[in-house]
């Protein structure tokens, strides 16, 4: 019996140390937050640096009162869908949130409120790459440790995804300038040959 009690104490201590080190497992979190976005997916494709989405989040009332007593902050993140993680280990989903690369783009952080009127309108940043995304919210404690989450898609079968089309870095003005310089180069080349030909003829006379 004493050994059994010691084993439980050791497991509890290990869990406590893991949490203190920030080694929180996503699979250990309750989905206590409801998160939605508008315009509503699926199929919505947003342009980086231009388009906007409005994120809304609230506490899931199906959980008992007091479950959120330690929630201090809500962090909203833009996360890569599984289809945009394939062959890209730098976006890989890992259960240990300290190593997880799913949600790399912060949308906003706000003090936690149980109110259902938590909204934020987000303009897609110019550096967001082309991919399929969903939105996830984490509830954090006073030490910024994840306690719970919510997201716009199901964890097992991804639905309600939306796309973002990133900026490629090419603009019409650059293309026009490139064509002009190419044309100028060709004309200069013909002019050079013409002048050389005239010079050769003058020397023969």
TrEMBL record:
<keyword id="KW-0472">Membrane</keyword>
<dbReference type="GO" id="GO:0005886">
    <property type="term" value="C:plasma membrane"/>
</dbReference>
<comment type="similarity">
    <text>Belongs to the NAR2 family.</text>
</comment>
<dbReference type="GO" id="GO:0010167">
    <property type="term" value="P:response to nitrate"/>
</dbReference>
<comment type="function">
    <text>Involved in nitrate transport.</text>
</comment>
<keyword id="KW-0534">Nitrate assimilation</keyword>
<keyword id="KW-0812">Transmembrane</keyword>
<dbReference type="InterPro" id="IPR016605">
    <property type="entry name" value="Transptr_NO3_Nar2"/>
</dbReference>
<feature type="signal peptide">
    <location>
        <begin position="1"/>
        <end position="22"/>
    </location>
</feature>
<feature type="transmembrane region" description="Helical">
    <location>
        <begin position="176"/>
        <end position="195"/>
    </location>
</feature>
<dbReference type="Pfam" id="PF16974">
    <property type="entry name" value="NAR2"/>
</dbReference>
<protein>
    <recommendedName>
        <fullName>High-affinity nitrate transporter</fullName>
    </recommendedName>
</protein>
<keyword id="KW-0732">Signal</keyword>
<keyword id="KW-1003">Cell membrane</keyword>
<keyword id="KW-1133">Transmembrane helix</keyword>
<dbReference type="GO" id="GO:0042128">
    <property type="term" value="P:nitrate assimilation"/>
</dbReference>
<dbReference type="GO" id="GO:0015706">
    <property type="term" value="P:nitrate transmembrane transport"/>
</dbReference>
